[in-house]
Amino acid sequence: MQTAALHEWLQQELQRAQPSQRASQPGALILHLVRRAVLEGVLVPGVRVPSSRELARELGVARNTIVAIYDQLKSEGMLVAGHGSGTFVCRVQDALLTPHLGALANGAPRSSNELEAALPNSVAEAVRPLNLSRRGLSYQRHPVHQFWRPQAFCSGQLDLQLFPLSTWNRLQRKHLSQGDAACLEQGEPGGAMELRRAIADHIRTMRGVRCQPEQVILTDGTVESLELVARLLTDPGDVALMENPCYWGASHVLGDHGLKTCALDVDAEGLPVPQAGQLPGPPRLVYMTPSHQFPMGHVMTLARRLAWLRYAEAHDAILLEDDYDSEFRYTGKPFPSLQGMQDTGRVIYLGTFSKTLYPGIRMAYLVVPQHLQQVFATASSDFYRDGDVVQQRVLADFIREGHYAAHVRSTRREYGLRREALLAALREHLGAELADGRIAISGGAMGMHLTLLLPAEVDDRGISRATACLGVTLMPLSVYCVGARRSGLILSYAAVPCDQMGPKIALVAPLIRQALTAPPSAALTAAAPPACWATATGSSAGG
Question: What is the pTM of this model?
Answer without folding.
Answer: 0.74
